[in-house]
Specification:
The chain is about 50% helix and about 5% strand. The longest helix has 28 residues. The chain is elongated.
């Protein structure tokens, strides 16, 4: 006996849940992450609840996610939904507290932190150890120093307050690590300053025995001490910043992510949210088509419900099947588009549309509607045993596009009128 197929959540519900997570749940969580440093277990629980709500519509029980949370938290240009990664956001907020210590010395809290925790010298931040005597927050800030170290550049003035071994002043980074000072400090005290090594007009360093020591001595030939005080600079990706921006730091912590070429095909102006969301799932091939269900080990009939002649897959569904190809052919004619049937070719075709803004929006709107209603027809046949012809599916798509074009006639009458004329031009 065949196993029952899972019932898919309607795409309009899923698109609503995305909005709810981004504007309400994630918004509230982001606020609290900005105000307090949250335990990792707390953030994991929030992410778990958001994931269950996104895919299941509620937070009760368990539900398998169609797309990993790591992908969901990517920006739309990177192939995700743009929901905040709370782990990285909370970490960016922790680093802001560290930034305040170095760049807001007149703060009462900074003065207390410097005197009590750092024993009167802000450079001790690089050498202080975590302790049970410190609060949980202080220990979190200490553990975060390896992340913020590359961004806190120490600029040499007179060299009297710059720690030779620990401040980020040479190109080599932390010399205590680069020169393996844990094994040999080359006769230089652990808390030595840069100025203490400059005597009688020359640098008092031993003969270089490694490439790293040689690179340091070459760099020292370019360093000239002055009467100015040493100071820290906040440098991100080679650019000096005068302010801390949590969003910028969040992007830095996320790291370089590859942009996807199809994002502009999905997220369009005046698009229908539930259509865009389903199209995103289809693009990632995360819809529960029968070929995927069989790969999961479910015993289901592999044949496609719309034709009953070929195995069901994403590519056959859109638009290798005769039924879906027939409906898409009528829509493509309205958009003056060559009706291709191979999924990869269609996506490339849409990405390379060389049209005016209104024509491009209309074409993408019509394509997304085609994907949505063909998928809906597939699910209706599966779960309700109701059948429509390609002509009826086309009529449904046509009606929805007309309604959508009229829905923004007050907000943008020019675009609404232009797109409506284009839609009726080849009717």
């Amino acid at each position: 006996m065949a196993s029952p197929q899972p019932v898919s959540s309607p795409s309009w519900i899923l698109s609503f849940e995305v909005k709810a997570i981004k504007t309400v749940i994630s918004g509230v969580s982001t606020f609290w992450c900005s105000s307090f440093i949250l335990p990792k277990s707390c953030i994991n629980k929030i992410n778990s609840l958001c994931g269950q709500f996104l895919w299941n519509g509620n937070i009760e029980g368990h539900h398998t996610a169609r797309v990993s949370w790591e992908t969901v938290t990517l920006t739309k240009d990177q192939g995700g939904l743009g929901i905040k990664d709370l782990h990285k956001w909370n970490l960016a907020c922790i680093l802001k507290l560290v930034w305040i210590i170095f760049f807001r010395p007149n703060s009462v809290w900074v003065y207390w932190f410097k005197e009590v925790i750092l024993k009167g010298d802000v450079s001790n931040y690089w050498t202080i150890s975590t302790s049970t005597r410190h609060s949980w927050l202080v220990n979190k800030m200490i553990k975060a120093r390896e992340l913020i170290y590359p961004l806190l550049k120490r600029r040499i003035g007179n060299g009297r307050s710059t720690r030779f071994w620990f401040d980020n002043w040479p190109p080599l980074g932390k010399l205590y690590t680069a020169l393996d000072a844990g094994t040999s400090r080359l006769g230089i005290p652990k808390m030595a300053t840069v100025a203490s090594l400059f005597t009688s007009g020359s640098w008092n360093l031993s003969f270089a025995r490694t490439d790293a020591q040689l690179a340091l001595q070459i760099h020292l030939t370019t360093v000239t001490l002055s009467d100015q005080e040493d100071h820290y600079e906040w440098v991100i990706e080679g650019q000096t910043r005068v302010r801390y921006k949590t969003g910028e730091m969040y992007d830095y912590l996320k790291g370089v992510q590859q942009m996807v070429p199809w994002a502009r095909v999905i997220w369009i102006s005046y698009g229908i949210p539930r259509h865009s969301f389903l199209f995103w799932l289809v693009m990632l091939d995360r819809c529960p088509t029968r070929d995927r269900l069989n790969r999961w080990g479910l015993n289901v009939d592999p044949l496609f419900l719309l034709c009953n002649t070929h195995p069901e897959s994403r590519n056959h569904l859109f638009f290798e099947c005769g039924f879906s190809a027939d409906a898409w052919r009528k829509i493509a004619h309205r958009c003056q588009l060559q009706p291709l049937t191979v999924w990869g070719d269609i996506i490339l075709q849409l990405q390379r549309l060389l049209r005016d803004r209104d024509s491009r929006r209309l074409t993408l709107l019509a394509f997304q509607a085609s994907v949505y209603w063909i998928w809906t027809e597939r699910n209706t046949r599966l779960h309700q045993q109701l059948f429509k012809t390609p002509e009826t599916v086309f009529s449904t798509i046509d009606k929805q596009i007309r309604n959508r074009l009229q829905s923004f006639r007050h907000a943008n009458p020019r675009a609404s009128s232009a797109m409506t004329q284009l839609w009726f031009l080849h009717s």
